[in-house]
Amino acid sequence: MKKLHKLSALALAIAGIATTNVAHALNPWTDGAPDFTIYTSGGAAQDIAYQEAVFEALSVPGSVDVFQDVLTGSSNGSRFTAFYFTGASTLTDPALRGKKILLEKRSLGAAGYGVVPLIANINLDHLDIFHSATSQLSATWTNTTVNSNIGGTTYAVPFHAASITNANAATFLTSTKSHGGFTGVDAAALLKPGTENYPDPVKEVSTNALTAGWISGYKTKDLTPLTRIPTGGLVYGVGVTLDLYKVLQAAQKASGTLPASTVIGAYDQASLPTLSRNFLAALLQGNIQHWSNVEVNVGGTLKPLNDTSFLTAAGVSAPTNDKVAVGRRNTGAAIGAVAYAKLLNYPYAESAVAPAQATPTTTTDETNTAPIVKSPGGASGTESLLVDWQAGTNTSNLNALAAKYWGVAISSADRNTAVTAAGTGGKAYRFVKIDGYAPTIENVASGNYPLWAEGEVLVNPTVGTTHEVSLFTDFGKALSTIAIAAKVDTALIQAWGQTGVFATTVTDAGAIDVPFLASHPIVPFTHQAGDGYTHLGIVPWVYDNFSVGPTGAGATGAFIELQ
C-alpha cells in the first residue's frame, strides 16, 4: 500500500509522545461529519510542506486522520489527499478552534489547477470521505497507522487508502468548486496564454473527460477577484538517473572539476557533479540529441561522455540507447515554470526559446525521435520516469520502449531524501549541482543557486465563508515564517545539505544569519515587485525588512506585467 509521502520515513518510538500532544484522531466511522469542509487544488511541488503545515499549524496535535487515493498499478503518486482534524487553539478564527475540519488537497492537474478553476468558478473532482454512505465505512479503506515526527514531536497518524477509479468515483469523489488554490510560484507566472506555462485541462476521474468549462485566455488582471496570500519559497532541483550521476562524477574527476579523491556514487555536497545553466538550457530546448555529442576535456583531449574510460571508472554499462532523455513538466506546473524562467528566460524575454515539446509515448515515436522528451504530470511522476529510464521499466507509462536511458529531469529538491552520504538507499536517481552549487537553502540565501521561487495561497471569496478565508490565511502564514519552515524542513534534510521551504525577509521580519543556519531558514532575496506580489520574471533582489518593514512593498519602481 502506498503511504502518505514522508510519514513512514519519519518513524520514531510512539512511546516518546508527551501526554499533552495526544488527541483523538478523527475519522468518519466514529466521529461523523465535519463542521467545516474545505476543498483545495493546485501543485504537488510543496505537498510535503502542505501536509506538515496541517500537522504543525492548523490541527490539534494527534488529531489528524489522513485519507488518500492510490493509483492501482502506478507509481505516479496520489491525486487526492484529505486531512480530517480538530482545529488548533491557535487558529485566528475562533469559530474554527476545536471544530472538526476536513481539509482536502487535489494535486491532479498541477499548480495551474490552483489558479484557473478559481477564477472561472468551475467544478472539479474532489475527494469527499462523506460523499456516500459507503465512503464512510472503515471497510472501504485500507487502514493503517504510520509514525510521523514533525519539529521533534512524534505523532501516530491513522492513514487510510483507497483505489479510486472512474468506475467507483461516485463513492469517493464529489464535483464542486475549490475554496482555495496552492501554487509553488506566483499565480501570474502561470497565466501566460499560448505558452508552456498556461495550464491545459486534464481528465476528471469521474467523467474520464477534460474538465468542463476550462478557459484558456486568462491573464494577470483576471486574478483581481481572488485573495492572494504570499508564502515563503521552495528550492527546486535537477535530478539525473543513477548511472548518469556516476558517469558525470567519473568524467568530472578526469577533467579536474571534481577532486581525484571523490568516491564514485558518494552523495555528500563535495561529491555532487555539476551541470551549467547553459548546458541545462540546451537539454531543455532539445538541442542535444545523443550523449556521444557531449564531450569532456581531459588533459587537452576531448572524450565523449559515454567513452569507455568513463564507463569503467563509474562502474556502469552503457544504456540501451545513447539518446538524451529529458524530463520537463506538464503545462501549468510550477516546477516547469521555474526551470523555464531561470534557465531559458521563457516566456519573459522576447527572444527566449521554449522548452522542447514532449515525445509522444508510442514505440514508433520513441524509436524515431531524439532526444526523448517527456512531460510527467507531477513530482512523483518525475521520480517514476527517472527510475524507469534507469531500470528500463515503464511504471510511469512514459517509457513505451522500456528502454534504459541516461536521463535528466527538473523536479523539487525535497525528494529522495533517503539517499545516504555514501550514496546508498533511496530511489535510483540523484540531484546535481548547477554551476557548482547544490540545491540548498543556504545557496539560495547566498544568491548562488538559481532554481527557486516563492509561492502563493489563493482564496476564492465567492466560495464558502470567511472561515475558509481565515484558515487559508493561517495556512499561508504557516508556510511563510522561519519557525514553521524550520519544523517542516526537519523532514527534508538531504545528504548534501538542507533543502525544502524557507521564509523570506518579505514574509518574516527575522534577521539573516551569517553564516547561514539551517535551523533558521530565511532568505534575503525576493521576486516581489512594486505591486506587492512576486513575479518569477524578476531577477531576485535583496529585501531589507529592517529598512522598509516586513509589510512594505519593498520596491521603489513599478513592475509592468504583460496583460
List the helices and strands and how they pair.
Elements: H1 28-31, E1 36-42, H2 47-58, E2 65-69, E3 80-86, E4 100-106, H3 116-120, E5 124-127, E6 142-150, E7 153-162, H4 169-172, E8 173-176, E9 180-183, E10 227-241, H5 242-255, E11 274-275, H6 277-284, E12 295-298, E13 301-304, H7 308-314, E14 324-327, H8 334-344, H9 363-368, E15 372-374, H10 379-391, E16 406-412, E17 429-431, E18 433-434, H11 441-445, E19 452-459, H12 466-478, H13 482-489, E20 493-494, E21 497-498, E22 501-504, E23 522-523, E24 525-526, E25 541-542
Parallel strand pairs: 1-4, 1-9, 2-7, 11-18, 14-15, 14-16, 22-23
Antiparallel strand pairs: 2-3, 3-4, 5-8, 6-7, 9-19, 10-16, 10-17, 10-19, 10-22, 12-13, 20-21, 24-25
Helix pairs in contact: 2-12, 2-13, 5-7, 6-8
Rg? 23 Å
Helix content: 10-25%
Task: Characterize the largest beta sheet: strand count, sense, and whether it forms a barrel.
Answer: 15 strands, mixed
Could you please say which CATH topology of the domain at 236-445 applies here?
D-Maltodextrin-Binding Protein, domain 2
Architecture (CATH level 2) name of the domain at 236-445: 3-Layer(aba) Sandwich
How many strand elements?
A: 25
Mean pLDDT: 88
Q: Structural class of the secondary structure composition?
A: alpha/beta
- The CATH superfamily of the domain at 236-445 appears as Periplasmic binding protein-like II
Characteristics of this structure?
25 strands, two-stranded antiparallel ribbon, disordered N terminus, 20% helix, 13 helices, 563 residues, 15-stranded mixed β-sheet, D-Maltodextrin-Binding Protein, domain 2, alpha/beta
